Amino acid sequence: MASYDVIIIGSGPGGYVCAIRCAQLGLKTACVEGRDTLGGTCLNVGCIPSKALLHASHMLHEAEHNFAAMGLKGKSPSVDWKQMLSYKETTIEQNTKGIEFLFKKNKIDWLKGWGSVPEAGKVKVGDEAHEAKNIIIASGSEPASLPGVDVDEKVVVTSTGALELGRVPKKLVVIGAGVIGLELGSVYARLGSEVTVVEFLDVITPGMDGEVQKTFQKLLKKQGLEFIMGAAVQKTEATKTKAKVIYKLRKDDSEHVIDADTVLVATGRKPFTEGLGLDGLGIEMTKRGQIAVNKEWQTNVSGIYAIGDVIEGPMLAHKAEDEGMAVAEVIAGKHGHVNYGVIPGVIYTHPEVANVGVTEEELKETGRDYKVGKFSFMGNGRAKANFAGDGFVKILADKSTDRILGAHIVGPAAGDLIHEICVAMEFGASAQDLALTCHAHPTYSEAVREAALACGDGPIHM
Ligand code: FAD
Ligand code: NAI
């Protein structure tokens, strides 16, 4: 039996970042992981593999649509799907091995196997029991199931199966116009699949700013994705090679059927707590099956903490990472903090979509006086040169104080551009602070400055 200051269960972005910070703070640390590789959902079957496929398929799209106009002539590349999957696997391996290296460097023990907590202060991995002054549960999430839809990960797949299909399907039906459905739907549309997205609501990406939802959907339609909105999926019927998706339109309750070679079920994810023994410990859960924690990520059982997808909040890798660092600091007797008001969200399609802070709809609901500064990428020289003029930057600021309250970007490198606004918000900056900051020319970032200028006397290039 080994004894630790901290044992973390789960090595996703929450768990592994927490382990590294604990070790850096001088705590004797171990991390339990049941998968064969470290890195959790994000590195193995989430963020990293999906971004590899998005990158490869985007390169193809550029070659097919923009190369000739730039004077780059020649045959468009063809898709070697096996090689694309192998590129994705190599990317995963480089990243998961990277975490293994960091664990060794920081003297963190990887306890291999599935862990459970028989009592506070003890973690069982296989037949071995270990002692820990502090236990952190970072067991992540898994795809939510949909009644009437049986996933076989071959024909009817979750994101995990969609990242390793045997071939590029001719017809792909995606259930759910959320982040997973649109990112992976984009990948397959670029690779030549006919993609139809069936969405329960009347808008895509629920919770996002309304203007972004509309513009984003229009751009995706232009790229060939089809949408059936306001449609509640009833069930799927699958053979070994094909499937039917049966849905009802909410407006008139009429039933329809759509054929597919592959069906991607992307209707959300749920916390994963199986086998941890939480019931026996009397750990309090929320109504949505998340582990309930206080402001210092402590559960109701002393010495047991939880972070990441398994607790409430956006299911995002960087949110899990921030909580991982913060809880390590709390345990080491320092002050751990996460500003939940400034957590960016990014969709890695092309163009990218990024947001931080409140939406215009939320401001209207609360009755707060606000102003909007908007700038189209059509007015940005760099974007025009790079065939990336679609989209805009929208900054929302308080009407009287000019303090930035939120920002929404559809456009090139949106996922990178959003961070200067995050930093500005962390410092309580006004839109004018951004507008008065010199931005290099020609960069996409100038569109952010122009949107900030639009909150005041007006943008220059519009
Ligand atoms: P996880 O990453 O889920 O890790 C939990 C780990 O705990 C797993 O490895 C699991 O095996 C292990 N575990 C669970 N129980 C036990 C046990 N009892 N014993 C031992 N080990 C256990 N987020 C982003 O921010 N950006 C993106 O681009 C992005 N893309 C995504 C794409 C896809 C297709 C998916 C599915 C998700 C994506 N996400 C993205 C979400 C992101 O992956 C999660 O928010 C993030 O991984 C959560 O981190 P976590 O540490 O809480 O849990
Ligand atoms: P999601 O919550 O983003 O979207 C699910 C969609 O499915 C919603 O639009 C919902 O209205 C719809 N839906 C639900 N039931 C339905 C039904 N019966 N019929 C039709 N539509 C239905 O969930 P998603 O895309 O599965 O992603 C899960 C999580 O993974 C997200 O919370 C996200 O944060 C994370 N993720 C993040 C990424 C990123 O940051 N780039 C990428 C991929 C995932």
Automatic annotation (TrEMBL):
S-S bridge residues: 42-47
Requisite cofactors: FAD
Domain annotation Pyridine nucleotide-disulphide oxidoreductase dimerisation: ranges: 343-452
Sample GO molecular function, one term: dihydrolipoyl dehydrogenase (NADH) activity
Domain FAD/NAD(P)-binding residue range list: 4-324
Binding site for FAD: 51, 115, 309, 315-318
Details of cofactor binding: Binds 1 FAD per subunit.
InterPro entries hit by this protein: Class-I_Pyr_Nuc-Dis_Oxidored, FAD/NAD-bd_sf, FAD/NAD-binding_dom, FAD/NAD-linked_Rdtase_dimer_sf, Lipoamide_DH, Pyr_nuc-diS_OxRdtase, Pyr_nucl-diS_OxRdtase_dimer, Pyr_OxRdtase_I_AS
EC number: 1.8.1.4
PANTHER family named among the record's database cross-references: DIHYDROLIPOYL DEHYDROGENASE, MITOCHONDRIAL, DISULFIDE OXIDOREDUCTASE
Entry protein name: Dihydrolipoyl dehydrogenase
